[in-house]
Amino acid sequence: MSELFDEVDEEVRREQLKKLWDKYSIYFIALMVLIVAAVGGWRAYQYFEAKKAAEAGAVFEKAVELSEQGKHEDAEKAFTELAAKAPSGYRTLARLRAAAEAASRDPKAAAKMYDDIAADRSIGGEWQDLAKIRAAGLLLDSAGYAEIQQRLEASAAPKSTFRHSAREMLALSAWRNNDMTAARKWLEAIDGDGETPPGLRSRAEALQALLPPVAKS
């Protein structure tokens, strides 16, 4: 008797499943089609992105070769063109390299290019800081200490990635502009940072030796 009830229950379940399938099969099939299309679309996107990255990498390498051959104008043009159409990673690198190539012909124009990168919030903060450092380096001989301070003081903060370079430039700018108080401030920051690179520490010590002695009160 129990086997008979089991057979009846099984038949009822099959009938219910058939009714559900007849009612909802179109939605299930549509969902499967959408999933397959989405996966296919994602794979195609990955393929084309990888292809664009590979093409950008090849163009970037050719531009680097032009730079190494001393063809800076051609290299600048190649990097600028790449920056206009490359994927985001190569775009930022190309902009930085284009500015570096421009520095050989027009430091102020190159500094402006770096400033534009530093102001671009669509890129990472470290890229922005690096652009600030590069721009300040080009202006170090011509700008006053106040301008260099405005540009680099935030980058010289204790947790900043490029704090060592920023502090060294600030100390040099202060020294060149006869602000010995500011120069000592940044040299002390360099000396007090346990992660200061040895080479930079040696340069800071040499600059410290050039400062006049502190007047005794």
Describe the structure.
The protein is mainly α and 217 residues long. The protein has nine helices and no strands. It has helices at 2-68, 72-85, 88-102, 107-118, 125-139, 145-152, 163-176, 180-192, 198-210. Helix 3 packs antiparallel against helix 4 (107-118) and helix 7 runs antiparallel to helix 8. 28% of the residues are buried. It comes from Bradyrhizobium agreste. It holds the Pfam family TPR_21.
**Ends distance:** 112 Å
Return Rg in Å.
31 Å
- Provide the helix percentage: over 70%
**What are the secondary-structure elements, in order, as H or E?**
HHHHHHHHH
Rough outline: elongated
Low-confidence spans: none
- Report the structural category: mainly alpha
Q: Biggest β-sheet: count, sense, barrel?
A: none
**Structure summary, number of beta strands:** 0
